[in-house]
Amino acid sequence: MQTIISVENLSKSYDNGFQALNNVTLKIHKGEIFALLGPNGAGKTTLINIICGIVNPSSGKVLVDGHDIVREFRATRSMIGLVPQELVTESFESVWATVSFSRGLFGKPAAPEHLERVLKSLSLWDRKDSKILTLSGGMKRRVLIAKALSHEPQILFLDEPTAGVDVELRQDMWHVVRGLRESGVTIILTTHYIEEAEQIADRIGIINHGEIILVQEKVRLMRELGSKQLVLELQEQLRELPPQLDSYDLDVAKEGMELTYTYDSQAEHTGITALLGDLSAAGIKFHDVKTTQSSLEEIFVELVNKIR
Amino acid sequence: MNWHAVKAIYEFEMARMGRTLLQSIVSPVVSTSLYFVVFGAAIGSRITEIDGVSYGTFIVPGLIMLSLLTESVSNASFGIYFPKYAGSIFELLSAPVSFVEIILGYVGAAATKSIILGGIILATATLFVDFTIAHPVWMVLFLVLTAITFSLFGFILGIWADNWEKLAIMPTLIITPLTFLGGSFYSISMLPPIWQTVTLFNPVVYLISGFRWSFFENADVAVGLSLAMTCGFLIACLITIWLIFKTGYRLRL
Fold first, then answer.
1. Is A104's CB within 8 Å of B83's CB?
2. Considering only CB atoms, which chain B residues are within 8 Å of A104?
3. Chain B residue whose CA is closest to A133
4. Under a CB-based contact definition with an 8 Å cutoff, are residues A169 and A141 in contact?
5. What is the distance between the alpha carbons of residues A174 and A180, in angstroms, rounded to a whole number?
6. Predicted complex ipTM
7. Residue contact A147–B91, C-beta within 8 A
8. Which tens digit of pLDDT belongs to each residue from B6-23?
9. In terms of residue numbers, what domain contains A250?
10. Domain count of the fold of chain A
11. A77·B96 Cβ contact <8 A
12. What is the DSSP letter of A138?
């Protein structure tokens, strides 16, 4: 896979001594949707801001499509669109004026037909002449997305794009994001809604305390780090686990009416057959069986807690 | 060179002028008219001529400079401070633009507004006093140079200011006193010798003197020195802005 962003040994210390990034190395593939997850203050926004040119790195190197972000900033920045976390807009401008401004700022000639397409895709066309201060929070978020898309970027950063927005906008936005990915745009997003990352991302990166903990393809991550549970609904209440079942990772729930067995689905022997045999030998009967799998959120929480 | 960005910033700033026409144009014109009425017609009629020019006419270049300086600083400082305050400066910092394009856009727009204002005040002055401009090309040159120089200074101020108070206090505490004490309403030859020497440390003296020379061929300091000082201040402002963008001072963390 072709690398479009290459971050090498990137560190950032702010003047107050806070180390926001510590020796981060990361590669983003061209055309992928990469979800960067991490708790608040983990360094997600600092990393994005350095790549976009808003924050100066303390050390390390970032290449965008082979161009250095400091020496060849014109080449790198013209490829990038950024939707920031905060709702920061020129309140007294109209939607059309601010979107046109963004396109010009990024070195593109006027293209009303492109801006019209972008505004329509974000349900903003009817409000194109409205002043931004008259818009709701969700509409302002759409304006920021429209500004980022106004100059037809090849790379789009979405920093918490769905924070505080309604379901309709989220659906609109993910529709737009999928459309962009299909047209070859690389998308890097941070989000607190991990289920969104689970649905949309190709690869997941987890960052904590300024360090990348893990970068993995989503499917592989969930397969390798996700555990599965076998849930048995018992016919009779189980007051105490028989000693012959001590070797299994079992939890008794619902006042002894449910037994949960957690196992590694990738293991050569999951232990399910042996468990069922031992349950039968112990006279424990069940009337229903189901399996569940860890969500990305559970994997994320477990990984972050391990580091803590 | 990203000319689309220069155009975008310039047009964006000029559009702001259109929205704030009352504040940008009408207020300075009204206040300048009041100066002409009070100092020109009322008090000026009792003051003898200065260097062969009636007092009402003598203050015309000074009044234009007063508005030009104040508005250049105010327009340029607000232009860059507001996106900083609102947070929308992230877009400028992440755009493929160098400090040259940013300066051309913001300072170009601020200087344009000031020059338009200077022209309007000049036209307003003709309603109150009769005068002819001895060296119109030099007059325009001084007008443009001063507008650009003080717009650059205002831009620096807008980056330096981290709150509205600082943004407002600099013009009030520095620009206005320097302009009033720089010979807007008098010739520095009217001051006692010691104050004439002190006044020469005020850069505004050179601007007003050179500008007044272009009108009446009378100057407190040699016109060449006026031009050199104006250009020197302009270069100093450019170097300061270059350093600001190189280091990211109060722009990039």
1. no
2. 4-5, 7-9, 11
3. B86
4. yes
5. 10
6. 0.83
7. yes
8. 999 999 989 888 777 777
9. 227-293
10. 2
11. yes
12. H
